[in-house]
From TrEMBL:
Pfam families the UniProt entry points to: Hydrolase
Species name: Kribbella antibiotica
Transmembrane segments: none
Keyword match Hydrolase: yes
Keywords: Hydrolase
InterPro entries for the chain: HAD-like_sf, HAD-SF_hydro_IA, HAD_sf
Entry annotated with the keyword Metal-binding: no
Entry protein name: HAD family hydrolase
GO MF entry, a single one: hydrolase activity
Length: 217
């Protein structure tokens, strides 16, 4: 992160933003090589078709409706993968790398007195893994997983419920996500929001935060 600019403390004091809500995938963490590459050992050139099918069928589970593993198992069987579903799930869906530079942003925001929260679309198995094994509950003040909220991004209801769970006015929260439609959903709910992903670098993130009078430096 770049050093705070002169006058930034005054901007922070004047800003209505007192909480930052962060997406997970693409902002805090990544799947090394991406999803398609992760599935190639099992499906080769059919990885893209497989993932787009299972992602579509996963949508209700992101909102807490249904069990994802049987759906994934049925799709694997249809594509001729005979390995146990748990083995494939652990190798791909749980292959998460937490980005240390993003964790430093979280720590910097907290040092500056902001509430820092997680806002992510996840079905229950991956969400539980992030909560327990990645220890996100210890890192964030409030963790907002779509499967627990009962509504998924980009639905504005996700952001309304997230603010309710945090216990604040939606207008005091800044949301950072790597997907444009999720940013649009947050803004439709009255939440400040900016699009950013890991490939853009942390100087860009610092600039986006500064637009809202927020500093992690």
């Amino acid at each position: 992160m770049t050093p705070s600019a002169p006058g930034s403390k005054r901007a922070v004091a004047a800003s209505p933003i007192r909480h930052v809500l962060l997406d997970a995938d693409g902002v805090l963490q990544e799947l090394p090589g991406g999803w398609y590459a992760a599935m190639e050992p099992y499906l080769g050139e059919r990885s893209r078709d497989f993932l787009h099918r299972t992602w579509k069928e996963e949508l209700p589970m992101l909102a807490g409706r249904g069990d994802y593993l049987p759906v994934l198992a049925a799709n694997l069987q249809e594509f001729g993968v005979t390995l146990p579903v748990a083995e494939v799930y652990d190798a791909v869906w749980k292959n998460i790398v937490v980005i240390e530079e993003s964790m430093e942003v979280v720590r910097g925001l907290r040092r500056n007195g902001y509430g820092v929260h997680l806002g992510t679309n996840q079905e229950s198995y991956r969400g539980a893994y992030m909560r327990s094994e990645l220890r996100y509950d210890e890192l964030f003040d409030v963790s907002c997983y779509s499967w627990e909220l009962g509504v998924a991004k980009p639905d504005p209801g996700f952001f309304t419920e997230a603010a309710r769970r945090i216990g604040v006015d939606v207008r005091t929260v800044l949301f950072i996500d790597d997907t444009a439609r999720n940013v649009e959903g947050a803004r439709a709910a009255g939440m400040a929001a900016e699009q950013w992903d890991l490939t853009q670098g942390y100087d860009v993130l610092a600039e986006l935060l500064a637009r809202h009078g927020v500093s992690a430096g």
